[in-house]
Amino acid sequence: MKPARFDYARPVDLAAATAALMDAGANGAAKPIAGGQSLGPMLNLRLARPSRLVDVARLPDLRRVEEGAGGVLFGAAITHAEFEDGAVPDPTPGFLPRIAHGIAYRAVRNRGTIGGSLAHADPAADWPTTLAALGARVHLAGPAGRREMPVEAFILGAFETALAPGEIITGVFIPRCAAGARFGYRKSCRKLGEFAEAMCAVLSDRARGVHRLVVGATEARPLVVTEAAGLIADPAGIDDLLCRAGLGGDPATFRLRRAVIGDAIAALARETTPESLTPSMKSVAP
Fold first, then answer.
1. Alpha carbon distances (Å) from 172 to 22, 49, 132, 149, 229
2. Domain count of the fold of the chain
3. The domain spanning residue 228 has which CATH number?
4. Residue 28 — very low, low, confident or very high, per pLDDT cuts 50/70/90?
5. Which of 168, 127, 132 is nearest to 19 (CA)?
6. pLDDT band at residue 43, thresholds of 50, 70 and 90?
7. Secondary structure of the chain: what % helix, strand, coil (to 5)?
8. Is the pLDDT of residue 282 over 60?
9. Per-residue pLDDT averaged across 112-138, rounded?
10. Which parts of the sequence belong to the FAD-binding PCMH-type domain (predicted)?
11. What is the pTM assigned to this prediction?
């Protein structure tokens, strides 16, 4: 199939981009596009029919990288490949490149962006789960001005976010982890490049007193545990966690999630080598 007809705008700055999104001529159905790795297929299948696409891929505000003592602010148009290749600073002990490496295929990583992944809010995507575990914050700009919020507050549900009309994700701030921080990440996919059926990210940063666990691929918003030290120390509470969150319905899916969460927690105890941090993409038997 081919996309339905739409207008195309390529603004030169952020103000022009928000104006193009809010223009009455777009009838409230304008959408921003950067890498287009999620929106493109939706256009072709006519699952999305915007009256206007606003190309924000090269906006200077969305391509900046600002490094500070507390962390790094990445522009929303930084690609997965730039994280994978180490082309941008990493405020973690090597976690970001390894997560980026496990996203789909290299052709997708060359164009897909971190901001686009958050805006699309696919429950099975790697960045929403990872960024929530790292305590990242989303930076937004729109007609009402600029604001920021935690990733877990930004994602309201499956493919649903807190973006207001005319608003754009401008960047993602990732706090700096201590050198001894440990990170476990596991996802279950039937084959390389497919969407995950279950996933979990765990951060244990004792120097900062941060212990977070996030369960993704939940058909809704990620399940975020901000005080996860007890669960990390004693994973016997996984079953209760899933049941209290309403994720204990289908027995096969329940067992799959339990296994993936257990693997992510177990990864914290192993030596932090590239092999132990690389997301597992093998299927876990239910």
1. 23, 27, 11, 10, 25
2. 2
3. 3.30.390.50
4. low
5. 168
6. confident
7. 35, 25, 40
8. no
9. 96
10. 1-179
11. 0.90
